[in-house]
Amino acid sequence: MQLEVGTILEGKVTGITKFGAFVELPEGKTGMVHISEVAPTFVKEIRDYVTENQMVKVKVLSISDDGKVSLSMKKAVPPPPRDNGPAVRRYAPRPSGPRPAGRPGSYEWQASKKPEASSFEEMMSRFKQSSDEKMTDLKRCMDSKRGGFTKHGGPSR
């Protein structure tokens, strides 16, 4: 039987190292399963997953020009079926409550109450004033973190 990439075979673990396991394949060939290809989870200690003389299913990942066979145990078994149940939130909800003071994220970037209907000029004036105040506070905060010096090396004004 000729080894081909993608073939799933059964073999016997003949040796274990800290970086992988050597598996004897049919017809006396030997391949190696890298530690990252042993299980679908992080593997710190390979001996927790395989033992010598254990029979394992492996998939041929590659065969190098010099005959080295790269194997995978985790790709030899089909993935578990996906649950198509209700959608799951994959992010943590934002913490409620006030943010800590002194950090740029603690600014309230949006007005807390809706402004009354007013002219565009009044709205723009309020926006510019609010923006200027926030930028001044941000610069003051950044200057204190830099030790009072500007990016050009001189003292801040």
* Structural class by sheet pairing and helices: alpha+beta
The residue-averaged pLDDT reads 79
The major pleated sheet works out as: 5 strands, mixed, barrel
Helical proportion, percent range: 10-25%
The proportion of strand residues reads: 15-25%
Spell out the helices and strands N to C. Answer: EEEEEH
Instruction: Determine Rg (CA atoms, Å).
Output: 31 Å
Query: Main sheet: which strands, in order across?
Result: 1-2-3-5-4
Describe this structure in words.
The chain has 157 residues and is an alpha+beta fold. It is 17% helix and 21% strand. It contains one helix and five strands. It has one helix at residues 120-146, and strands spanning 8-17, 20-24, 30-34, 55-63, 69-72. Strands 1-2-3-5-4 form a five-stranded mixed beta barrel. Strand 1 and strand 2 (20-24) form a beta hairpin. The mean pLDDT is 79.
Summary tags:
alpha+beta; about 160 residues
Summarize the model shown.
The protein has one helix spanning 120-146; strands at 8-17, 20-24, 30-34, 55-63, 69-72. The chain is α+β, with helices and mostly antiparallel strands.
List the helices and strands and how they pair.
Elements: E1 8-17, E2 20-24, E3 30-34, E4 55-63, E5 69-72, H1 120-146
Parallel strand pairs: 3-5
Antiparallel strand pairs: 1-2, 1-4, 2-3, 4-5
